[in-house]
Amino acid sequence: MSTLTIERLVVGYGDGAPVLDGLDLEVPDGGVVALLGANGAGKTTLLRALLGLVPVRGGRVLLDAADLTGLPTEDRARRGLALVPEGRSVVAELSVAENLRLGALWGHTGAARDAAVGQMYELFEPLARRRDAAGHTLSGGERQMLALARALVARPAVLLLDEPSLGLAPLVVAQLLGVLRDQAEATGLTVLLAEQNVTGALSVADRGVVLSLGEVVADRPAAALAADPALRHAYLGF
Ligand code: ATP
Predict the structure, then answer these.
(1) Distance, CA 56 to ligand 1 centroid (Å)?
(2) Residue nearest atom 19 in ligand 1 by C-alpha distance
(3) Which among 4, 24, 92, 98 has most CB atoms closer than 10 A?
(4) Is the pTM of this model over 0.90?
(5) pLDDT digits (tens, 9 = 90+) for 50-100
(6) Where are the domains positioned within the chain?
């Protein structure tokens, strides 16, 4: 079981006003929740706060019954939380295979490590073809696949993603989002997916949550949210 529960979370930078002010959100075990909202709504801040990368002023973050609030980032990762940050982060000098082996250091030993890397080549066929290529020679889509595979290979319980589809071709986006959906169904991976690509995110999510100025203004089944033009127009800009 890996349900992520966020209770009355308050987060801000320095002495400034809170960016998130009492945010409540639940991402159920094996569920995919799309986190939507305009630029500056607080999506990145929330993901970083969940990992302990920005200080929390109040509220709690729970993984099942365990209270993660106040734990160092490393301990949260050890308990199964992983973040794919915006910007397709891979080690540019290392090959695809080396990047994946690095990701697999966490949570696997010996032969299990190779098997886990092999599974990533099955999920992301283009990476198998490019396994010896250095990170810096990859296309944008390949880099994002590698960033996602590098997180998945460590078998996280909860995967947080910050705009994975940004700047990518529609076919690549569909493939990446499809992998997330499949992993949630096949392995029980719990996914919180921050996206500006509202249509894409809602097509693979169970629920959509709309943030505006650090507050949840809608939390509904994905299909209902996709079909609500007034809400889309008010908060999502289309
Ligand atoms: P985007 O899609 O542009 O990344 P977002 O929804 O992820 O937007 P955040 O990046 O979390 O939003 O920003 C929320 C608010 O926090 C904004 O007003 C932003 O200016 C502010 N903010 C973000 N990072 C910092 C920082 N390091 N220091 C001060 N304020 C920040």
Answers:
(1) 15
(2) 40
(3) 4
(4) yes
(5) 999 999 999 999 999 899 999 999 999 999 999 999 987 888 899 999 999
(6) 4-80+156-236, 90-155
